[in-house]
Amino acid sequence: MRLKDKVAVVTGAASGIGEATAKKFISEGAKLVLLDLKRADVDRVMSDIENLGGDCIGIEADVTDREKVDELFQTAVDHYGRVDVVINNAGITQDARLVKMTEEQWDNVIEVNLKGVFNVSQAAANVMIEQKSGVILNASSVVGIYGNFGQTNYAASKWGVIGMTKSWAKELGKYNIRVNAIAPGFISTPMVEKMPEKVKEIMKNKSVLNRLGKPEEIAAGYAFLASDEAQYITGTVLSIDGGTVI
To answer: What is the Cα–Cα distance from 162 to 153, expressed in whole angstroms?
Structure first.
């Protein structure tokens, strides 16, 4: 087990990539602190994990609420004694073309996807600096690297995540803290599955593998980057996109 007894915090853990990552980390021996917006969703994933024999606690909170984020890390340290890995998975989309995008749509996406990552990572860094070890893994996107029609706010937030990732890798390396990001392509999550078939076909055709990615494939990338197998990797953005951007 590559992550045996490591304590990992996963945000946005109640569906899609976050849920797949939580279950992958349990299979690799990690102990988990799960964070999402709705208590019922957190409890469902916790129940699944406990049925798999996993050790976890769950917290209902919003990553944009700094007080709640600080409480999350205090709870994690009180319960497990440390935090070894953080997966900044929580994120939202509110799409519109530039000329149609409202200020509220812009603010909402930036608040969750950028400020939320900042909040969680700053709180994590305070714990990890004291430990002199840790791994912070951030969810970017191929959209953050290459842009996408109708996603000005999302692209800006995910490009910003890359900038923060590289900056934090430089700042935190002296404390034995690694910081990396994953840039998923188009992944078959509940949000994507609700889209019209025509849109999903366009997404599939962008990949040279001619399919959408699976949440488990992104989770596998997080598990590798969190493990000691990746202990000389920091400041990197790993694209897992099925060749979408070739």
So the answer is: 15
Whole-number Å distance between alpha carbons of 126 and 119 = 11
Taking the CB of residue 110, how many other CB atoms lie within 10 A of it? Answer: 16
On whether the pTM is more than 0.85, the answer is yes
CATH assignment of 7-188+215-240? 3.40.50.720
- By the 8 A CB rule, do 25 and 2 touch? no
96-140 pLDDT, tens per residue? 999 999 999 999 999 999 999 999 999 999 999 999 999 999 999
Binding positions for NADP(+) are: 89, 154-158, 187
Q: Where are the domains of the chain?
A: 7-188+215-240
Report the helix count and the strand count for the chain, using DSSP H and E. Answer: 10, 7
| Active site (catalytic) residues | 154
| Cβ atoms within 10 Å, residue 208 | 12
Which pLDDT value is given to residue 39? 95
